[in-house]
Amino acid sequence: MQLLQPLVFELPSAPLSQPATWQTSRFALSLERPLVMGILNLTPDSFSDGGQYLRPEAALRQAERLLAEGADVLDLGAESTRPGATPLPLDEELQRLLPLLRELLRWQVPISIDTYKPEVMQACLELGADIINDVWALRHPAQGALAQGGPSAEAVVAQHPNCGVCLMHMHREPQTMQSAPMSGDVLPQVHDFLAQRAQALQALGVARARIVLDPGIGFGKTVEQNFALLARQRELLALGYPLLLGWSRKSSLGAVTGGAPAAERLHASVAAALLALERGASVLRVHDVAPTVQALKVWQAMREQAG
Predict the structure, then answer these.
(1) pTM of the model
(2) In sequence order, what DSSP letters do the residues of 49-113 get, joined into one string?
(3) Choosing a second label site near 248 at 20 to 30 A (CA), which of 157, 219, 292, 294?
(4) Which is catalytic among the residues 197, 250, 265, 279?
(5) Going from the N-terminus, what domains does the chain have, and what CATH number goes with each?
(6) What is the pLDDT of residues 243-278, one digit of tens each?
(7) CB 76 within 8 Å of CB 101
(8) Per the residue annotation, which of 197, 249, 279, 285 is the catalytic one?
(9) 221 in catalytic set
């Protein structure tokens, strides 16, 4: 497969029905311009920056830096979902998340929680978190307290009437997704899955304005499938929901740039972010906020002159 093709930049035309704001617990986030979601991993084993921000002091400094560089949203994750990652016990995830969340909520900035556990969602939303960002799209099988009658992830989100939610497509699970990736045409499979999950959540009373969709770059997909999703990303706009894209430092970028390690994929990450933006992305989830924000300013300046 030839991945390097001539680039044709076109301005996307999103469906008229796509919400103009992303409703979250405390904020109605305007989508009139693209939002930058800064990644803050409170983990020792994330694929790119594991261990750097595990200590609370380091995490707070990084949060401050991401906001100073222009992040619109902070996305906190305490459990790695990289390929082959080991599941984290519930208590340990809460111990990593809750103290930092309590402090960051005082900063009055939008906070997203990257988790699939309903108990973690419940605890964070009760404190005041704004968004649940779930790689399992609120469908992780019941475990622990849930098996004894606790609420599902869907129910937790539905019971908090204003929180935002990001539903992501993942093939299989983190432990196996890259050992047995998807087969066939990836776009219709991702399209249909995201449509079904969004419809299921709306059936529980969750307003469309609260829902954002993520095609899940790298989550159980081959390099070719990831780039097929990018090339055909506009087709997902027909679902009528804003799209969040997370290309930052992904291994597919390393695969097409000569095997560059994660820490050296900055330029490729920014390029992928802009290509996703050109194809209709509303939210960009990134590690490197400042370079991405600079690139977006160039894009916005061009848009203003294009009328």
Answers:
(1) 0.90
(2) TTTTT-SHHHHHHHHHHHHHTT-SEEEEESS--STTPPPPPHHHHHHHHHHHHHHHHTTT--EEE
(3) 157
(4) 250
(5) 21-302 (3.20.20.20)
(6) 999 999 999 999 999 998 998 999 999 999 999 999
(7) yes
(8) 285
(9) no
